[in-house]
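User: Hi! I have a protein structure encoded as tokens and I'd like to know what sequence might fold into it. I'm fairly new to this, so please keep things simple.
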């Protein structure tokens, strides 16, 4: 049984890229120092070349500054490459865990927005090599420029610090005002996406009954709410970006003006050249903040994505390897089983279910709609965690059993057949490596060979998304073949005859007889008389409880004494 010990997996994954981040910061120190090269070049030209008129000095200085530019851009290229490498490393660490977590969350709740998980991950991954993060990393290095300005003149340094304080205030106000608006916009976007996905899943009924126009109106309302909130967030961010840009431009001129005043009063060392250098450095002090504010929406989205992904991964971590268990023999034990939805615990869908099955037995489960039959089938294969009680397969909790290990011994046909895009062989073999012997055996068992050979590409024929290229009956047969592939020890079938014709139903009943003789345990939800005839026991359910349980003939006889409660059994 797999034991889960993973905690804060996203933090651990991000911690794994810290060595690369340190190198990025280290190289950033040199690139930010090299940004001083234009100021140094200007100072040298004014101080040496203008007065000496020495062209050789000008040439050497020009060659040196161009070399510095080349080194600086090369280091910037290396830094971007390292952040891309960090993003790839994060992808290798998290992709499997994210897939498993999204899969588990979708299994827990059909309305869970699985697509948002991968959108969030893309936002988080892309921010690693975005200009926004580079600007954030470079903020500590503004101390270099501030120190240089103070060395030129303290008055210029204090003016620069004043501008920096205002710029910091703008950045903080931007965060406080934009983040809630972005969060609201994302919530409305998610609601609109969910609504459209729901409409799309029922597109045939929507189109056939003329519901598209009113549903589109409702979707437009949700979409417009998202656009309004996004527009409001963009407007706020745009205003702050404009304020930041204005301050950066003004700061340059103000420092230049103060420098000019100091030159006139002969208070500035090296004269007019240092005045220009100070104005350039002052602009560099505010540049990272301006870049940060301009890219704030990306950072805000990434921060929200981080929070959602962290919660998801902590809630649905990938199970660690557990102790290998022996293959199940087909024994099923259901003990005091109850199940209720998390958001409605007071009204359980199942209550106090008890029964046992030995290997090779067939249980027929029947009852009216909404009696809990499908919920029971999901609990039996370990898809749902019981609210109380246990489902045990050979004494092991079905929900806790590692599904990768258990799956090969378990066959399951859900009420919604749920085929996947791929070939017939892919679906029957559960998208694993096909075993020719097992594949041939199940095709023979269900007598699918005449149909498969009539297809242009035979067993390698693609069936499309959810098998839409096949008829309902063919989809049901492929789903049955998948459930019976490899002669599993336990098979749970939910309405396996829903789309079958009479001949296919006969083949299904014959397959159950053959596998029953080979000790396969069956739980079949159905109203077929033919299944009753080969069943060892029969369970009649009503309102989430067992109404009758026992030998099929005895159960039918007892129900006939109360005709109002008798389920329909097809002859």
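Assistant: Happy to help. Inverse folding works backwards from shape to sequence: for each of the 571 positions I chose a residue that suits the local structure. Here it is:
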């Amino acid at each position: 049984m797999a034991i889960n010990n993973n905690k804060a997996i996203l933090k651990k994954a991000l911690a794994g890229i810290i060595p690369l981040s340190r190198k990025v910061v280290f190289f950033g120190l040199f690139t930010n120092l090299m940004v001083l090269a234009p100021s140094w070049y200007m100072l040298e030209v004014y101080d040496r070349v203008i007065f000496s008129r020495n062209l050789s000095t000008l040439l050497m200085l020009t060659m040196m500054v161009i070399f510095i530019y080349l080194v600086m851009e090369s280091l910037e290229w290396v830094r971007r490459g390292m952040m891309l490498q960090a993003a790839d490393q994060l992808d290798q660490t998290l992709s499997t865990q994210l897939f498993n977590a999204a899969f588990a969350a979708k299994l827990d709740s059909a309305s869970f927005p699985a697509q948002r998980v991968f959108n969030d991950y893309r936002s988080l991954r892309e921010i690693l090599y975005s200009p926004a993060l580079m600007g954030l990393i470079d903020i500590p290095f503004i101390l270099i420029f501030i120190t240089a300005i103070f060395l030129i003149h303290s008055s210029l340094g204090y003016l620069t610090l004043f501008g920096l304080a205002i710029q910091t205030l703008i950045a903080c106000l931007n965060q406080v005002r934009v983040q809630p608006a972005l969060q609201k916009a994302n919530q409305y976007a998610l609601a609109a996406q969910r609504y459209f996905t729901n409409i799309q899943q029922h597109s045939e009924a929507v189109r056939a009954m003329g519901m598209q126009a009113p549903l589109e109106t409702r979707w437009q309302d949700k979409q417009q709410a998202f656009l309004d909130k996004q527009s409001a967030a963009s407007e706020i961010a745009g205003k702050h970006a404009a304020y930041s840009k204005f301050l950066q431009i003004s700061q340059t001129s103000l420092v230049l003006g103060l420098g000019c005043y100091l030159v006139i009063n002969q208070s500035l060392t090296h004269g007019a050249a240092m005045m220009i250098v100070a104005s350039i450095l002052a602009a560099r002090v505010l540049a990272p903040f301006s870049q940060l504010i301009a890219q704030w929406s990306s950072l805000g989205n990434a921060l929200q994505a981080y929070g959602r992904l962290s919660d998801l991964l902590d809630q649905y971590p990938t199970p660690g390897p557990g102790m290998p268990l022996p293959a199940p023999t087909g024994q099923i034990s259901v003990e005091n089983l109850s199940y209720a939805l998390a958001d409605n615990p007071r009204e359980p869908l199942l209550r106090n279910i008890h029964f046992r099955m030995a290997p090779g037995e067939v249980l027929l489960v029947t009852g009216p709609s909404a009696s809990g039959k499908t919920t029971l089938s999901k609990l039996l294969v370990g898809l749902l965690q019981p609210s109380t009680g246990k489902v045990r397969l050979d004494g092991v909790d079905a929900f806790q059993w590692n599904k990768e290990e258990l799956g090969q011994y378990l066959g399951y046909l859900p009420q919604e057949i749920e085929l996947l895009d791929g070939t017939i062989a892919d679906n029957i073999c559960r998208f694993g490596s096909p075993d020719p012997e097992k594949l041939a055996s199940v095709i023979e068992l269900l007598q699918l060979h005449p149909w498969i050979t009539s297809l242009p590409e035979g067993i390698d024929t693609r069936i499309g998304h959810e098998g839409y290229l096949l008829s309902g009956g063919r989809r049901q047969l492929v789903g049955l073949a998948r459930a019976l592939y490899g002669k599993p020890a336990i098979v749970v079938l939910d309405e396996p005859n829903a789309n079958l014709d009479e001949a296919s139903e006969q083949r299904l009943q014959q397959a159950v007889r053959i596998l029953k003789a080979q000790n396969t345990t069956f739980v079949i939800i159905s109203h077929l008389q033919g299944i009753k005839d080969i069943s060892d026991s029969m369970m009649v359910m009503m309102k989430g409880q067992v109404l009758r349980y026992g030998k099929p003939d005895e159960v039918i006889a007892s129900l006939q004494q109360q005709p109002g409660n008798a389920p329909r059994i097809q002859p």
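A useful reference point when you look it over: The first strand starts at residue 332 and ends at 339. Feel free to ask if any position seems puzzling.
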